[in-house]
Amino acid sequence: MRTSRPAAARVALSLVSVLALGAGAAACRQPVTHVHVDGARADTPQPGQFVVVGTAVLDVRPDVADLHLTIAAEAPRARVAATQLRARQAELRQALIAAGIAAEDLTFSSLGIQPVYDEKRERVRGYRAAIDLTATTASFEALPELLEVAVGAGATNLTTERRVLDLPARKREVRDLALAAAKAKAEQTASALGVKLGRITSISEGSGDGYGWNGRWGAELPNAAGFVQAHVAAPSGGPTLSGDAQQLSLTISLTYEL
To answer: How far is the C-alpha of 225 from the C-alpha of 148, rounded, in Å?
Structure first.
């Protein structure tokens, strides 16, 4: 048998239901605000951006040339070979200084003594003592004379290597040039278009193939005698002794707010 609720209870329940529906409708009518993850309102205007690129190329020529060579002596006994080597080393040093090399620009290294074998008799026939030397000069025109002096003193394995003395300073110079180019381009464009540049929001740079260069040209002159003959007999017809210029290039990108 179904039990009927009292009239007062039914009226109270109907009133609660009406209030609940009214609250739900009011909640649905509340304004909705969309917010980005970073807290900025969706309707907030975002600043524009202006990206400008500046590129600089710097021609770099070598400052000095390093003359690498070996001086050696061979004798039946190791001690005798070392003594003879010291005498030749002193003779070569004096000759190079007389040819214009400063004493502080002469570096001796890698002293070694090793046995010399007679392959037919399968025995040691003597000992060879050798030392490597590097002579540095800023006068590229003096290279032929220096090579003649070294060869006359018995030097072997002669090569030259040209290099830049202060490569980091050259790289800072090309970066300054690239930054100046980017800034000038940005200011010129903004002035022509009548816009105001804001703050810089990002900076990036991309180096050219030469920017990672180590400041050295490759070793040259495997045939010292041929070099001396070509440049002493006909110096005007030979190549430029200082070598070609090496290019350092750098591109810098700046992003401005507008």
So the answer is: 8
Buried b / exposed e across 182-214, counting CB within 10 Å, b at 16+?
Answer: bbeebeeebeeeeeebeeeeeeebebbeebebe
DSSP per-residue codes, 79-90: HHHHHHHHHHHH
The pLDDT of residue 223 is 52
Residue 175: predicted pLDDT: 94
Angle at 71 between CA 150 and CA 116, to 5 degrees: 145
The predicted model gives 28-48 an average pLDDT of 51
Give the whole-angstrom CA distance, residue 241 versus residue 224. Answer: 14
Return the number of other C-beta atoms located less than 10 Å from residue 158's C-beta.
Answer: 21
Which residues neighbour 38 within 8 Å (Cβ) at sequence distance 6 or greater?
none
- Contact criterion met (CB below 8 Å) for 134 and 66: yes
Q: Rounded to whole angstroms, how far apart are CA atoms 84 and 74?
A: 8
Strands laid side by side in the 106-118 sheet: 106-118, 123-137, 64-75, 156-163
Predicted confidence (pLDDT) per residue in 123-151, tens digit = 899 999 999 999 999 998 888 889 999 99
pTM for this model (two decimals): 0.67
Instruction: Name, in order, each residue with C-beta under 8 angstroms of 146's C-beta and a sequence gap of 6 or more.
Output: 67, 96, 99, 100, 101, 135, 137
Half-sphere exposure of 32 (CA within 13 A, CB side): 4
Q: CA-CA distances (angstroms) from residue 53 to 136, 152, 247, 258?
A: 40, 56, 19, 16
- Order the strands of the 49-60 sheet from edge to edge: 49-60, 246-257, 200-207
